[in-house]
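4.2 Preliminary Data

To establish feasibility before requesting continued support, the project team ran the inverse folding procedure on a target of 342 residues. The structure was first converted into the token representation described in Section 3, and no sequence information of any kind was made available to the design step. The complete token record follows.
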């Protein structure tokens, strides 16, 4: 058992495996029934902090909430064309800025870098005489997004709360322009598909956390790739963009990919046993998400590993759930494997 798997794999980084004598690993950390994984993506996190300048301004205070998105796991569902509310809010604000002079006081979305952001909130200050036209244009933009995401995110909406006339702290126009430019130019989503495994994402990134503080604009990116050089290439793009704008970039939680091995006795045996026990075809595959097997393989060069597990649904969303009957099947599979492997 390891700790901190979801927040950077710090547990497996530090674990001492020197007492371990075996070289077969059953990694029970997968979520698709009948699929036995032999490879996974590596990844790293990038945190960007861009200095901001503010000023006091008077106008109509509106709070915009872009919500209703499915979200999901940034590895397992990044290819499903689901909206990321941080990215979409950047688009909304840019479209509005093309026609109106306004600024923002707050901008916040997401709490985990490895989850596709479901909701983003921004407080904006618009000239009172522009409010009606501003809201009319916002309604048009909402219709555009709802049309584009009618299949992937059918409940997408933008909620508006009118907080009336106010004098509040908002971003200076130069800082606001930098925020808009950053959100419109930062890479997001699938960068490359695998040529070795059909329909598998090779390289991607997610803008999971965004927070506008008093004097700082914070973004947290999660990058994944099964090709290490492409992982670092995407990281370089994000770092170059951030530093060009004046941000401080921190790179962390860099974990290795689990490379595919053509020969694996444990993979062959357990997938055959699955078919024998349940009369269902076992699928051998790879995953774009990160697993700890890459670290274990690096510490144990002769490791023969396979990753499997019971059926999970809607991971990293409030609807996440686990199939009890699938747990029963995998318990039987695990015990049967251990019995025959004595």
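Position-by-position output of the design step:
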């Amino acid at each position: 058992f390891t700790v901190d798997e979801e927040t950077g794999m710090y547990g497996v980084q530090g674990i001492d495996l020197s007492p371990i004598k075996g070289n077969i690993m059953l990694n029970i950390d997968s979520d698709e029934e009948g699929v036995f994984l032999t490879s996974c993506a590596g990844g790293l996190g990038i945190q960007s902090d861009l200095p901001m300048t503010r000023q006091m301004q008077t106008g109509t205070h509106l709070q915009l909430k872009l919500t209703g998105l499915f979200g999901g796991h940034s590895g397992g569902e990044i290819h499903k064309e689901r909206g990321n509310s941080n990215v979409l809010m950047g688009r909304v604000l840019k479209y509005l800025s093309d026609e109106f002079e306004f600024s923002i006081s707050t901008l916040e979305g997401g709490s985990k870098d490895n989850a596709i952001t479901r909701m983003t909130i921004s407080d904006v200050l618009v000239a009172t005489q522009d409010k009606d036209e501003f809201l009319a244009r916002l309604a048009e933009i909402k219709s555009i997004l709802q049309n584009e995401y009618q299949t992937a995110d059918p409940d997408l909406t933008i909620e508006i709360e009118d907080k009336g006339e106010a004098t509040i702290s908002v971003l200076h126009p130069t800082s606001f322009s930098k925020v808009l430019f950053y959100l419109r130019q930062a890479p997001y989503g699938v960068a490359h598909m695998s040529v070795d495994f059909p329909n598998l994402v090779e390289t991607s990134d997610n803008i999971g956390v965004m927070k506008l503080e008093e004097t700082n604009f914070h973004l947290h990116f999660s990058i994944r790739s099964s090709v290490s050089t492409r992982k670092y290439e995407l990281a370089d793009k994000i770092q170059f963009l951030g530093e060009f704008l004046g941000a401080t970039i921190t790179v962390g939680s860099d974990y290795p990919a689990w490379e595919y091995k053509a020969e694996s006795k444990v993979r062959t045996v357990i997938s055959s046993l699955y078919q024998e026990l349940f009369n269902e075809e076992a699928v051998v595959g790879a995953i774009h998400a990160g697993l700890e097997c890459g670290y274990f393989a690096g510490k144990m060069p002769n490791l023969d590993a396979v990753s499997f597990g019971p059926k999970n649904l809607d991971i990293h969303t409030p609807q996440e759930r686990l199939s009890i009957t699938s747990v029963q099947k995998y318990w039987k599979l695990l015990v049967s494997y251990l019995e025959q492997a004595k």
